[in-house]
Amino acid sequence: YAIESGVNSYMVHSKDLSLDTYKRISLDRDLFKAVKEGQFELKFQPIVEADRNMVVGAEALIRWNHPEWGLLSPDEFLNLAEMNGLIADIDNWVLEEVCRNLDLWRRQKVPLVPISVNRSAKSFLQFDTLERMITPLRTYNVDPSLINFELTESSFVENSDRVAEVIAQLGEKGFRIALDDFGTGFSSLFHLKEFQVQTLKIDREFIGSLLDGPENMAITNAIIQMAQDLDLKVTAEGVEEPVALRWLQERGCDYIQGYIYSKPVSAENIRKIFAKRVLKPVYAGGQLVVEN
Ligand code: C2E
Ligand code: MG
Ligand code: MG
Ligand code: MG
């Protein structure tokens, strides 16, 4: 942290940075305990078919229920976990928790849809990665087609051969793979050819301000078009506005994920959404269909 906060910037923003630095140090220290004691929980955000409002999946998103700091979002602790090596343990916990929920929902006779599970490059490239990914599915008798791993393309630039190999092995077992944050990496098009993925997720960066200027529309349009030509599915992430939804529907975007349908919700509430199967779009800032 010393490098990041530096003496000069520390003096300029001393108040903010001292709290920020204190928080980061304390979180880094607490993370080991959090993993051991299981202080994490999952939220689930529905993924909806653009043309029919049908719920076809959900993304599992981790939160840390910290005893002092409260519910923390992944942006506040996953980079620490990347640095101190705990990310693999965390990602493995997430997969196990997703499988546990799928098993539970099956017993409750809820119609099952694939759950998207984020996986960092470090977890994905563990030496025993296949075994790590298959074991929880065996434990809970979950079919691999119910797991959709999301990989952030930009984080795999260095080990792309090994990544392509693991993706191919997972594909043979029936897992699905999506390229997350698509459009923000530096070698997206090259990796598209190398990686046997089924879905592209257009980054929120483009979708959030889609209609503010011609650039984001042009890029999004190009990604949708390319996905269709390559026979890939495409998901738009971060859709909040009805006009953006309509624009994406008109261009044949397959799936929508965003506050316009629902924020990430608890396991209990996503179960209700799965049981209903359909979600109506609501204005961002308006009343949510199911509360967080
Ligand atoms: P992501 O995989 O790109 O997930 C989408 C993020 O966009 C989520 O943030 C979600 O809450 C947010 N989002 C979705 N729709 C909207 C919208 O309409 N408006 C706005 N403002 N935001 C929206 P979240 O949950 O904070 O997660 C952030 C990132 O943390 C994720 O980005 C993912 O890269 C990472 N992450 C989350 N859970 C895990 C995990 O279990 N393992 C790993 N390795 N990474 C994770
Ligand atoms: Mg994701
Ligand atoms: Mg994303
Ligand atoms: Mg993201």
Automatic annotation (TrEMBL):
This is EAL domain-containing protein. Transmembrane segments: none annotated. Residues 24-278 form the EAL domain.
